[in-house]
Amino acid sequence: MEPYELTASEAARSIRDGRLTSEALVRSCLERIEARDPEIRAWIHVDPALALAAARDADKRLAGNPSAVGPLHGVPFGVKDVIDTADLPTTHNSPIFQGHRPSRDAACVAIARSAGGILLGKTDTVEFASGGRKAATRNPVNTDHTPGGSSSGSGAAVGDRHVPLAFGTQTGGSHIRPASFNGIYGFKPTWGAVSREGVKHYAVSLDTIGWYGRSVADLALMAEAFRLEGMGETAPVPLAGLRVGVCRSPVWSSIEPAGEAALHLAALRLEAAGASVEPFELPADFSTLAEVQDVIRRGEGRAAFLDLYLGDRHRLHEELADHCEHNRGITARSLTEAYDVAGQCRARFAGLFERIDVILTPSAPGEAPKGLHTTGDHIFNGIWTVLHAPCLAMPCTHGPQGLPVGVQLVAPRFADARLLAMAGAMAAAVA
Amino acid sequence: MEPYELTASEAARSIRDGRLTSEALVRSCLERIEARDPEIRAWIHVDPALALAAARDADKRLAGNPSAVGPLHGVPFGVKDVIDTADLPTTHNSPIFQGHRPSRDAACVAIARSAGGILLGKTDTVEFASGGRKAATRNPVNTDHTPGGSSSGSGAAVGDRHVPLAFGTQTGGSHIRPASFNGIYGFKPTWGAVSREGVKHYAVSLDTIGWYGRSVADLALMAEAFRLEGMGETAPVPLAGLRVGVCRSPVWSSIEPAGEAALHLAALRLEAAGASVEPFELPADFSTLAEVQDVIRRGEGRAAFLDLYLGDRHRLHEELADHCEHNRGITARSLTEAYDVAGQCRARFAGLFERIDVILTPSAPGEAPKGLHTTGDHIFNGIWTVLHAPCLAMPCTHGPQGLPVGVQLVAPRFADARLLAMAGAMAAAVA
C-alpha cells in the first residue's frame, strides 16, 4: 500500500507512531498528483518544494517533542482556491485574481497548520464559489462527468487520493454534492462554528467552510483541529436503536432513480444493522426554504460582488455582475422576508428531533451529470444550508453509470460532535 | 474658510464645480493633521505623498470627463485600522499585525475609491475592534476624555476636521457611540447591506461597517457610493407630521443626566419644528436583546479569534484569548438561544413602526467619560445592532463638562435611504 492511499486518520496515526514520515506521505501524494492530475485537473497550484519543506519540519518537530503535536500532524491538506493562502496564489478561478498573493492565510488554513497539517496546494473551483466560470476538474471515476462543484477540485483530489483532506465551501450545495459525486466523506459544520475570515464572501449568512476526507474519522480529525464544541467528549454512539429519520425532503420531485435507490439502500442497511429507521417529514412550511436559500444567496451576493462590479466589471463574469444589476427582481423586501422565514425555521428545527436522532436524506439528485459545463443541482442541499445545520455526506452505492451516489446526514445546529459520532456508527453499514 | 473645514458634501460639490481641487483639499487636511494629530492621535498611518498623488489623479480625471465622476470624487476619507488597505499597513492595533500589509483593499475601501474617494490614512482602533488594547486617540473637545470606541480614531478625525469622512465598524456600539462623543454624524447601515470583506471578523452576525461625516448629506453621499437600495429615489421628507417615537429603551437605567437631557431636548425641538413626537416602547421581551448581543458577540468571537489563539497566543490580548477559553460559560446552547431570540425580534421589529416613522433614542449614556482606559458603554447600541437595523447618530447638545451629546435615530431593516431622508429633515432642528 502506498502512503497516498491512507486515510488522514490512518496517516496521522502512522506518523505519530513513527511508522511513516510526513515527508514520505507528502512525496507519495505529490507523485500521485503528478501521475493523475494531468487528466483530473483538480489542482490550480501545487508547490512541491514548499510542501516537502513543511513536511520535513513536521518530522523534526515530532522527533523533538512527540507529545506536543496536533491532530493533523504531518498530514497534507488541499485548499479550495477561494480561500486565502500566504504561500500560494489565490485566484478564485477569476481573471481578476490571476497571480493574486494574499498576505495571510485564511483562518481555517492557519488553524489546520496550527494542528500540524501540511498545505499541499490549491484546488480548482467554480468562479468565486458562486457562478460563472467552471473548474476544469473532471470526475476521477469517469472523466466525462463533472466532479460536482463549486468545490470541484477538492472533491476530486480527495476522491482520487491525491490528498487525504481538503477544504471546500458551501453556500447552496457546493460542498456536500461533490462529496457524493466523488464517493467520499464531507462535513459542513454548523454555520458560524468555523471562521470564514480570508474566504471570498458570497452570501454571508449562508457561506460555510467544510472539509473532505475518506472516512468519518478523517472528518472528526479536522473537527478536533477546529475545537468544535463536544469534540473529544462525545462517547461513541451505538448503532442499535439509533433513530434515523429518512427525509425525502420537500424537493423530492428532483430526485433521480439513482438517488432514490441510494436513500432506500442506506435505510435498509441501517435497519438491518439495528438502527430504528422511520420516515421523517419536515413541516409543510419548510418547503419554501429552497426558494429562501436562493433569495438570500442572490440578495447577499449583491453586496458581495459590488466592489468588483464597480472596479473591474469587464473581468467579472456576466452571471456574477447580474447580482449587482436587476438581480431577478430581488429587493430588500424579499430579502427581509427570506431572512425571517429562515430565522423562524432555524428556531424550530431542533424541536423536530424529538422522535429521531438524525436525518438521512439525499446528498444530490443522483449520479454526477455528464459534461463539465455543469456541476449538478444543489437542490437537495440548500434547505439544510439555510437551516445552518451540520451536514455530513457519506458514500453509499454506485448508480447505473458506475458513478458514486452517497447520502447525507443532518443534525440540529451545533450538534456537530454528535453528528460525527453518529456517522461513525453508521458509515460501515451504509457503504 | 480652509478647505479642511468643508463637509464632504460641500467639498464634493466644490470639486465638481471647479471651485476647489482635490489636491488643495487633501493638502489642507494633511496640514490640519500635522497641526492637530500630535495631540489627538487619531491616525496610525498617513501617507501624504500617496494621498496627494491620488488627489492629483482625481483632478486630472475630472478635467478629462467631468460627467463621469462618482459621488465622492476627490474627497478624502479615513479608514479604521481593522479594515484592509493595499497601500497602507493594517495593524488592528495588535502586536501580531504590526507592519502587516494586506494584498488588497477591503471591499468598502475599493467601493469608496471607485466612487472617487481618496484614501487619506488609517485611524486608531481598539484592538481588533473588540477588546484588549485601547486606541491612543483623545477626544478633540477635551483631550482628557475618550473619543469613544472602538472606532476611536475615525470618530476623532472627523470630529476634529482632519478628514470629512471616515469608516468605522460596529459589533456592539463601536460606531454610533463615538459619533455622539465627538459631536458628529454617524451611519450604521442595515446589517449585510455593505460587504465586510477584508474587515477583521469579530461577531459575523453583528459586525457592520459604518461611516462618519459632519452632516446628514455626507452620510448620504457614502450611502450613494454603496448603492444602498432607494438611494437617489427617495423624496425629501417633510418634518411636519413626521412621527417620531421617543424610546428610552429597555436599558434606560444606564442613562446619565446629560443623555437624558439630550433626548428630552431633541424631542422638544422636533416637536417645536412640527414633528409629531410621542413616547415609544419596545415590547417587553425585547429587553433581553442587550444580553443577546453580548452572548452572540462572545460566542461568535470564539471562532473569530481561534486562529490567532492557536497560532500566536502570547501576542493576543488576554481579553481576546479568553473568548477561546472558558468564555464566561457561553455554550452552543446559549448561543443558539440568543440567535433565535434575535431572529424573532428582527422579524417583529418592522411591525412596531405602525404608529411611528422613526425611533429617537440615546446614542450613549451621556458625555464621553474621562480617561483613555475606557471607551464608554455600548449599552444603548447593542439592541439595535442585534436587530440589524440602520442607525444614525446626530449631534444635539453639550453636557455639563462641555462635551458633545448626540441622539440616535433607528429605522426598520433596509429602510436606510428613508432613514437618511428623515434624518435630513430632522438634523437642523435637533442640533
Automatic annotation (TrEMBL), chains A, B:
Residues 25-420 form the Amidase domain. GO terms for molecular function: catalytic activity. Gene3D superfamilies: Amidase signature (AS) domain. Coiled coil: none annotated. SUPFAM superfamilies: Amidase signature (AS) enzymes. Residues 130-159 are annotated as: Disordered. InterPro entries: Amidase (IPR000120), Amidase_dom (IPR023631), AS_sf (IPR036928). It comes from the Bacteria. Signal peptide: none annotated. It holds the Pfam family Amidase. This is Amidase.
